[in-house]
Design goal:
It comes from Mesobacillus foraminis. The chain is built from two helices and no strands. Helices cover about 85% and strands about 0% of the residues. Helix 1 runs antiparallel to helix 2. It has one domain.
């Protein structure tokens, strides 16, 4: 489930990074790109936390 959530975050973040809306102006597009980068970083942290949880559960057994 976390992997599916990470894939959705990556797709949505990449969409926001690649999208340019002329009516937003430079500042609006910059903010939209920052939000897209934040989504991609969030996906990295979701996947990384999943990996850490699996390793810790294996060491507890």
């Amino acid at each position: 489930m976390k992997l599916f959530f990470a894939v959705l975050l990556i797709l949505f973040g990449s969409f926001l990074i690649g999208l340019t809306v002329n009516s937003f102006g430079k500042t609006g597009n910059f903010i939209m790109h920052l939000i897209g980068i934040g989504f991609n970083l969030g996906a990295i942290f979701v996947v990384r936390s999943k990996k850490d949880n699996q390793q810790s559960s294996q060491t507890n057994e």
